[in-house]
Amino acid sequence: MTMPSASQLVILDRDGVINHDSDAYIKSLDEWIPYPSSIEAISRLSRNGWTVAIATNQSGIARGYYDVAALDAMHAELERLVGKAEGEIAHIAYCPHGPDDGCHCRKPLPGLLDEIRQALHLPTLEGSWIVGDSLRDLQAGAVAGCHQALVRTGKGEATEANCEGLENAMVFNDLAAFVDWLLAQ
Ligand SMILES: [Mg+2]
Ligand SMILES: [Zn+2]
């Protein structure tokens, strides 16, 4: 793995970006259905010298819909698939709390991105990319100085239709389209 630097770092939301989202939450490994093009896109990023990290709100844990062991199983499968495609995920940060728990990590709050920054030993995330399907992903990134990319998968079309808060965001059909663009820069 190359030494991480913020200018070669992409931070991804999970649900609706890497895998299909569900309003009923992703509660088990069976329900975790990745977009194959996203697995390939993550792999292409790491094979081209980019560091990839994930920041995901998982309030279904606080709500009692699934436990950390179920989440770990999903993330082990994600890492297995990315590894099979010769890619790598440097860090997965998740918030297990609910909206009323008063935590500091539930996006748009900065805790998950700060966890990633510390895990990668970076002084700042300024100049890195955040990719998400919800406004709160982009907001969390904006606070940390990330470039913002909205994808139209998951809740992305609804987020785009709402228009609000997207002034500084680039919009892509999906993660693969973002990576195509990024690697062509
Ligand atoms: Mg999402
Ligand atoms: Zn939290």
Describe this structure in words.
By secondary structure, the chain is an alpha/beta fold. It has helices at 36-47, 68-84, 111-119, 135-144, 156-162, 175-183, and strands spanning 9-12, 51-57, 91-95, 129-132, 147-151, 169-172. Strands 3-2-1-4-5-6 form a six-stranded parallel sheet. Helix 1 (36-47) links the parallel strand 1 and strand 2. The longest helix is centred in the middle third of the chain and has 17 residues, at 68-84. The radius of gyration is 15 Å and the shape is globular. The structure holds magnesium ion and zinc ion. Residues 13, 15-17, 21, 132-134, 154 line the site of magnesium ion. Magnesium ion is lined by residues 13, 15-17, 21, 132-134, 154.
Task: Give the structure's gist in a few sentences.
Helix content is 35%, strand content 16%. The chain is of the alpha/beta class and 185 residues long.
